[in-house]
Every structure is written in C-alpha cells, then in structure tokens.
From TrEMBL:
Signal peptide: none
Gene Ontology, cellular component aspect: plasma membrane
Protein's recorded name: Putative peptidase family m13 includes neprilysin
Domain Peptidase M13 C-terminal: 166-377
Residues covered by the Peptidase M13 N-terminal domain: 5-101
Keywords, sorted A to Z: Hydrolase, Metal-binding, Metalloprotease, Protease, Zinc
Biological process per Gene Ontology, one example term: protein processing
MF terms in GO: metal ion binding; metalloendopeptidase activity
InterPro entries attached to this UniProt entry: MetalloPept_cat_dom_sf, Peptidase_M13, Peptidase_M13_C, Peptidase_M13_dom_2, Peptidase_M13_N
Family per record: Belongs to the peptidase M13 family.
The protein's required cofactors: Zn(2+)
Amino acid sequence: EQAFKEFRNKNQYSTAHLTHTINKRPEECIELLRLYMGVAMDRLYVEHIHNDTVKKQVEDIVERLKKELNDTIHEADWINETVKTEMSEKLRNTTVVIGHPETLLNQTVLEELYEDIPTIETSTSFLEIFKILYEHNYRWKFQIHLEPFRGRKLWSPSDSEDKFLYSETNQQVEIPWALLQPPFYEDGLPRSLGYGALGAKIAQGLIGAIDIKPIITSAFGKKDAKRGNINNSEIDNKTDCFLEQYGQDSSYRTWVPPYTKHIEKLQGNIIDNAGLQLAFKAYTKVLGEDCNGTDTRLEGLPDISGNELFFIAHGMILCKAMSTQDDMLWNWPPGWDDTRSENWERVNMPVTNIKAFSTAFNCSEDSKMFYKPTESCTFLISPGGQTYSGALD
C-alpha cells in the first residue's frame, strides 16, 4: 500500500504546478526518479505488492469477459458474418497480460538497461544524478525503437501507473499491477466490486481491441469495402442516439473531413457504454451460474445489493473531488482535450442505459437517472441482453 501511494500517482508533480502549490522536496525527488528511472522503481513496486492469487482472479475475469464479448458479437444481428468473423479473430488473437513483464524481475535485464550509467558516489548531488539519468533516458528512448515490437522486454505503461494500454502492433492489452489495487480491485471483496471497477476497464480495452471504429465511421459516409453489408440504418440510429445523449453535434453527417476528434469522442462514449454493459452482463452471469443468483454483501452494509456495489465501484474509479479553481485549471484551455467526455458524463451516462441501475437504486420516473427504453443507447449489446437471464434483475 505504501509503494502504491508513493509511486502510482503520475499526475502529482504536474498537478502541483497547475494549482500553484509546492510539493515537499522528497516527493518531487521521487517523482523525478520515477520519470527517469521508472523501470527500477517499478521493480521495487512490483516486489512489494506482487500477489499470485489476485493475478489468477483477474485472469478468470478476463476469460469470462472475452467469452461474453465473443458471444455478444455473434448475437448482433445488424452486423454481417464477414465482420463478425473479423472481430472474433481479432479478439481471439488479442492477449491480455497482467501484472508485469517477467523480465522486470530479471536482474540481468535490469543491469543491461542501466549499463551506461556510471557508478554514482554517495556524495554526488541530486542535480548531477538527475543529469546522468536524463541523458540515459534520452538514449534509451532512441534505442527502444531499434528493438522488435513483438516480444519486447518491457511494457509501454509503467507498472505503477493506474492505466492499461492496448498495443495494436502486438495485439496485446497490458494491465499493470497498479490496476490490481484499490479502488480497481482487492482480494476478498465481493465480485460485484471487481467487475464494476476493473472488469469494466478490461471490457472497454477488449472492445477497443476488436476495432469498432470502421463501423462507426460508416455513419460519416466513409464506407469500408469489407464492411459494406452492415446495416447502415441501424448504425445511424445507434450513433444518433449517443450523439444526442451526450449533447454532441448531431449534424455529423455534414461534417467536413478531417473529423477525427468527433469520431474519437463518439467512439470513446460508445466504448464506455459497451464496456460497462459487457462487464455487467458477465457479472450477472457469474451470479447466476456460480452463486445461484445470490449476491455477496459487504460486511456491515447488508442492505446494499451486489448490483448497487457494481455501479458504485464503476463510479469510484472515475469520480474526482475538485474545487472550482482546480476544475478551471485542470480544464484550461477550454477544449484542450475534447476527444473525451468529462468524467461526470462518463460516470452518469452509461448507467442510464442499463435498466438494472434504475431498478437497483429505485430511481423515480422524474429522475434523470431513470431508465427509459425509448431513450437508452446501446451498441453491441441489445437492451434485453444486458442481464444474464439466470441472475437477479
């Protein structure tokens, strides 16, 4: 836990400058070392929190999600068989690696990585050390481009960063150890929490891996020969629904290329929704098949159902507490990252498209969170297929 607190927050240093606050010197030094000697610090981090039990549990979640996604692809009657086969093939060839590359704990690999760094005496100043590491890091960035991408020794994200990365070249989703910690996952807690937090993120990564972008762009008049038999009217209806729900410009069919930002934002919103729906469907299937429809409650909170815990966990990984000043600084200049919806939208919008959320929290009909079938948006999973039939609604 201590290693998690010290090393995982990659935004600590930059946020301090945005809010004009001054971090304590040790914290700044740690952050600079993490930036320029990240692999060594990842090694310390992984040695501190490695847990084989958690890794096996997450591997089980991954396999269940992949199976559920594959079934969902073949259940989508608006996608032709050619595209379904193509998506299934991409999913089958996509590997999900969890934790850290095995080479991270290999002392020989670690020594080779830093072999150009001279022996540093204890009397050396931090500024001198920083200069040495900076030069090493600069050389290393050029060297990694010379290595083959497939089977590379180190992953792209740091093992102490709470994000995953999909490598299209390797067809690989990488989940570092930081995502196997709270609030994303914790051993011994109900499955609802794990599926709602980490499960949803993994599901989003898998959906990104099967490449839905060509399908989305067909609504913009960009036709793909391989996907020519897709029901375009159905795609238009689905994209229109998400654009209207998120308040995005609905006149997208008249957009003049390049419209990359518009497509990326739409794609991100669709993946957020489809990922959460897929994770919820997988969770309810586990509940129905493995637990006879009986969910596990948290000790001391017996009145909070598994479905409620699922959606709470999902919200926790995206929610932020910010003052008005922090919010202004974080989003300055306006539109600096308009390819993603704001976090409050990413939390609230997807759950309004799942009937079980409205049921679990007893939303009133006049609430914005109340499920309205005629206004709900889905992409891969049909509204009637969001919950496994053997589970509780």
